[in-house]
From TrEMBL:
Gene of this entry: ytfQ
The family this protein is said to belong to: Belongs to the bacterial solute-binding protein 2 family.
Keywords associated with the record: Signal
Keyword Disulfide bond included in the entry's annotation: no
Pfam families in the cross-refs: Peripla_BP_4
Presence of keyword Signal: yes
Protein name: Galactofuranose ABC transporter, galactofuranose-binding protein YtfQ
Length: 311
């Protein structure tokens, strides 16, 4: 109504506004890119971004969010490490009239506790990866090992579900082992080493599906260390589209990735600006694109393009 318009008129743009960003940490190349894009988008708009790195711990995120509320920030961006346990602190933000925008991961909480969520369709990402593998193996029998993301995170839950949907109805494909690699390169490598040992040095494995590229890059190293060829002896499919996976594709060591833009902040700031200007309610879910890349899609060019953007 009119009073809402009048009371929000002071927020004509984001310049000079203090906005808190509770980031998960720096577990992956994608995460590092998201952090740097968010900082540079904020700078472009003249936003005074207060950045808090939670080192993978929800309790640190909750502490940071309470700090932002106490400071009276104009808005809070949160990349939620896990899906559950947000209701209390988000209610505190709501009571303080501070809009919250979720970045890149979803939560299990009432939707009125956040203004909007900017993220990909993570079930779709998994489905695209699974459907790619179905096409790649044809009628061949294919035993798949899966490297899951952080336990309890929305991308780990949804990418698992989506992949299972993607391979459903194709009895020649089956997931024989599945374990978390916490979205990191080091754990991806370690868990893959275990899979290889358990499966006759890797001879029983046809493909590895990793919930992100960093774990795939770790798995590629483990496969090479075991004396097998990633990309041919064992197919490698993952999600993110970071420069390193394109480099692996150029080397013939990775087969497919589903791109996830690190620019979640651009749409988030646009939605926030409109909301603070005249109360415009954004879509509840702003969904970014999920595009498949394979070695046919100019991996060197894709690598160069991302490096040019500073990822
Ligand atoms: O794919 C992964 C990161 O939350 C969707 O988190 C994001 C995921 C991303 O660590 O690399």
């Amino acid at each position: 109504g009119v009073s809402a318009l009048l009371s929000s008129a002071a927020y004509a743009d984001l310049s000079g506004k203090v906005i808190g960003f509770s980031q998960i940490g720096s577990e992956s190349g994608w995460r590092a890119a998201e952090t740097s894009v968010t900082k540079s988008e904020a700078e472009k708009l003249g936003v005074d971004l207060k950045f808090a790195d939670a080192q993978q711990k929800q309790e640190n995120q909750i502490k940071a969010i309470r700090g932002f509320i106490a400071q009276g920030v104009a808005a809070i961006l949160i990349a939620p490490v896990v899906a559950t346990g947000w209701e209390e602190v988000l209610t505190e933000a709501k009571e303080a009239n501070i809009p919250v925008i979720l970045l890149d991961r979803g939560i299990d909480a009432p939707q009125d506790l956040y203004l909007t969520s900017v993220a990909s369709d993570q079930v779709k990402e998994g489905r695209v990866a699974g459907e790619w593998l179905v096409g790649a193996v044809g009628d061949k029998e294919c035993k798949v090992v899966e490297l899951q993301g952080t336990v309890g995170s929305s991308p780990a839950i949804n990418r698992k579900q989506g992949f299972e949907e993607g391979i459903k109805g194709h009895a020649n494909l089956s997931i024989i082992r599945s374990q978390t690699g916490d979205f990191t390169r080091a754990k991806g490598k370690e868990v893959m080493e275990g899979f290889l040992k358990a499966e006759d040095g890797g001879k029983g494995i046809c493909a590895v599906y990793a919930h992100n590229d960093d774990m795939a890059v770790g798995a590629i190293q483990a496969i090479k260390d075991a004396g097998l060829k990633p990309g041919s002896d064992i197919l490698v499919v993952s999600i993110d589209g970071v420069p390193d996976i394109f480099q692996a594709m150029v080397a013939g060591e990775a087969n497919a990735t589903v791109e996830l833009t690190p620019n979640m902040a651009g749409p988030a700031f646009a939605a926030l600006d409109a909301y603070l200007t005249d109360g415009t309610q954004p879509e509840k879910f702003i969904i970014t694109e999920s595009k498949l890349y394979t070695p046919k899609d100019d991996p060197q060019g894709e690598y160069d393009r991302r490096k040019g953007l500073g990822y």
